[in-house]
What does this fold into?
Amino acid sequence: MAKLQIREALRRAMVEEMRRDDRIFLMGEEVAHYKGAYKVSQGMLEEFGPSRVVDTPISEAGFAGLGIGAAVVGMRPIIEFMTWNFSLVAFDQVINSAAKFYQMSGGQFSVPVVFRGPNGAAENLAAQHSTSVDSLFAHFPGLKVVTYADAHDAYGLLKAALRDDNPVCFLESELTYGVKGEVPDEEFIIPLGKANVRRTGSDVTLVTWGKQVLNCMPVVDELVKKGIDVEFIDLRSLRPLDHKTLFTSVAKTGRCVVVQEGHLFAGVGAEIAARIQEACFDHLEAPVLRVTNRDVPQPYATNLEKLVMPSPDRIMAAIDRVLGRA
Amino acid sequence: MAEIFVMPQASPTMEVGTILAWRKAEGDALAPQDVIAEVETDKAAMEIEVFDDGVLLKILVSEGDEVPAGAPIAIIGTSADEDISALIAQAASASAAPAAAPAAEAPAPEATPAPAAPKAPKATGKVGLTAPAWNGAPVHEAIMEMPEFVYEAPEAEVADLPRSVRAAPAARRAARELGVDLTAVSGTGPRGRVLREDVEKAHATPAAPAVPAGPADEVVRNSQMRKTIARRLKAVWLDAPVFYLTARFNCDNMVAFRSQLKAAGVKVSYNDLVVKACAKALRDVPAVNASWAEDAITRHGSVHIGVAVALPDGLITPVVRNADQKGLATISAETRDLATRARDRKLGPDEYQGSTFTISNLGMMGIEQFTAIINPPEAVILAVGGMQQEPVVVDGQLSVGWRMKVTLTCDHRVVDGALGAEFLQAVRKYIETPALLAA
Amino acid sequence: MTAPPPSHTPPPLPAESGLPPVDAEMLLGMYREMLRIRRLEELAAKAYTQRKILGFCHLYIGQESVAVGVAAAGQDNDYWIAAYREHGHAMAKGISARAVMAEMYGKETGSSKGLGGSMHLFDRDSRFLGGHGIVGGHAPLANGVGWAIRARGEDAVCVCYFGDGAANQGAFFEALCLAQLYKLPVVFICENNFYAMGTALHRQSAITDMSRRAAGVGMAHESFEGFNVETVRERVGRAAAYARSGQGPVLLEVVTYRYRGHSMSDPAKYRPSGELGHVKESDPLKITRKRLVDDFGITDDQFAEIKAEVEAECQDAAKFAEESPVANPENLYAYTYAPQTTSMGVGDDAPVHKFEQKGEIAVPGFEHPAAQVGG
It folds into this structure.
């Protein structure tokens, strides 16, 4: 067992796979010489050389498409977006090519590419650098969308993404690259599409993913202290969505709060709420509530940004509402 | 081999095209992509091309003609001297009949094999959704299932709990399953919402803990009728200030009258006589044939008498309309017919609604006297007890006579004591002098 | 103050392609191939008017010499990727007329089982990578194919077809930039037919020689007329040899012309009158037929025989498409995600994949530019 930073866990996953599989290469802005914009790929250029750890110009559509083209003829590229904000420049490539190639070709060419990079808000980065793209990519059949909360899951899920024969959007978090966590020394893989019930309970289901998991942890502690038996679910995969775990939980508790980054309108939380009310209708004691980024472009000022993001008091308030105490 | 060339369908909305001009003449050689005609459609003028080598053998429609898409417009062959008489005939009959498919395949001597039928859908039986047909072929049921989420078919039973109750979905389901009346449960949720725990608590109490379990309770769901009775009579009970007037009628004459009628072949019941008596009495005292409203009392122009009929799970009051204008035989026949149909649940709305006065008779069940609840929006109701032989005093001497007690429930807002008494006097008049019924 | 490092000047294309000279059989074969493409496109047009082909249908009639010429210049193990006017390219690369037609008819026997349609023809065996609908969107993918070729040390090129309209798309510029930066074995072929949908060339771009787009990224480029299939073969052959040898990508502008509108819904009324008639003087079939008659003595009978064979093959393809079963609804969900075949094993069970031969990709080095300049 070792305590690794999340960036180290991600690196370990990539390095292990690249050592075994010549088809894998890492490509993106500043990944090689600069050692990665967030130092995730530090040391990889020295081990694998410039043909496999590749610096690109600022041409997201160009190098995302390159990755896709390489994947359809048998390579297994890792395409890093410096942040997922910039993936929007390559949106056509990811959606119209990566997601649809397999279907358009009638199953002749699969696309085993991993797109990865930090997603969502950091701090004070303002409107164009704080986008959470979960729902944008999760919307499209043909893609898989995965995220992690801690080092253990970062490693295990990135390994699974690299083995997956389909295009995977792997959403990381800039704010937590330095957060340390226990990662077993032995190799392991966490299958995609399986949520993690971090705490079992029977009063209310709290669902979230990505770095919001870390933000919810103090809230969970607080609830438990108040005697509320909260069931805390880390979704991990947004697509495919582990609806079985969700439904089992809400059937038990009858109450659900979803915490997400990303705006309220048509966020992943909306999909979760819709499915829960369809399948668990008779079990619900209260409507499914969502705590999300407010529907405004991210402001720069610290005080305003704090108002936009999900915060412990907003989460608590939602929990109180579904428990019928508000 | 010559072929019939049809009007192509240029756009999904195109139904007809008008030939603006023929660009080729009969006998002209044709090459692929040659334009043979210009046609006007709903969208624009378009050029019609051929895509094969050939000769334009026959033009079938003229410039200015409007032709439906798919209808024959020309015959194209490979050489100028082909015999196309059969095709011309075929084209003529095709034009006469409404154009079908736009394909223009000449009838080939050898049968072309039919296109392979799409695979028949597998019955998965998983989902309660009907698979729509597409292009004539039924869609495979499996595609109606989304692989990541299986839609659960809604439960067949309708939640028949009143919607006015605020209850969480889980509470409603618990109430259905436990047989708890949601309206009787007090909710502890926000804005009085009934929660599942409230239902469970209501279900658990108030049984005495020490009593050993006896035979199971039977929970009978409230039918629509029961709910209606409950609702209406509760409303009038809470609303109307009532008082009761009891009178005892001498029925000797009525008994004799009935026997006479029977001997003459007219079968009436005592209740029929009471109905007629009340009908005439209502004409004598019209103020009782009325309904209360906040600012006015409506005195009804017609006399429609409702006769309460017991049903296995409740009661209903079929109405004898214009009872004052009907003879006894008619009233008798109608009442019998209405009662039968009432028991068979075959009454129409105007047969059980619209009464202005109601009679309830429990005499045949051994009831001496009772008070009935007004049938809203009426002002009074007459409860008729049983007719029996009693010791009576006539001219100071003890005798035996037929007596019957009736009780009139009156809504004091409409009917005061004296008025009610006056009405009962009128009824008495007709009961005790039944010959007046025919007058 | 240090000066920026000098811009890259690409080495010149070789003077000759190194391909064997054209003989009668080869030229007759190319003629036949062009005729085959033209005839199938005509039957596709006919089927479209009969509403047997639906949606979009973009015909290659008039441009056949380009795809056929490139096929003659290349190798079977080359990869091709094209836009949506790709029926001719698909056939030239090796997809059967039957599979092309059935796909356009939306039948189960189509090259993509009816899931793609006219704009998305793909074939694994002949290394035809589609069939793409977003103008210019597929150009970056060609670089990925080129990357794989280099990484695996393969002797192949990726040919990327697109039109003059695509040469204005952002993704296209990015593709050119990356291709040259990493010296990928890609031959970009711009089939300049002077119209991007209904917009004439001079109304889309101040520069009308699309090969000059390459000048902005330091890529070798040429422009030539593509009406003569032999010209195409020779010129593309030179470019393919260049790319194959690792000297870098090439952008070729091949001037050509489509006889019909952008698609079946376009009556092409934006062309000046007489233009089509004028261009048809240079019909590729006409040019090659004349050459076959004049220089190889091919007789009318031989042409008639070829025509009959092509006719039979194309009519057979149409009949096959007509009679094939419709796309199978059971496939509706089958091709959204590829089945997981790569093992999820760990430790000794983990999958290992090593290239038999490895190549290096010419990613520009890391020496600081300042070190290059004296002082």
Q: What stands out?
A: Chain B touches chain A through 16 residues (CB under 8 Å).
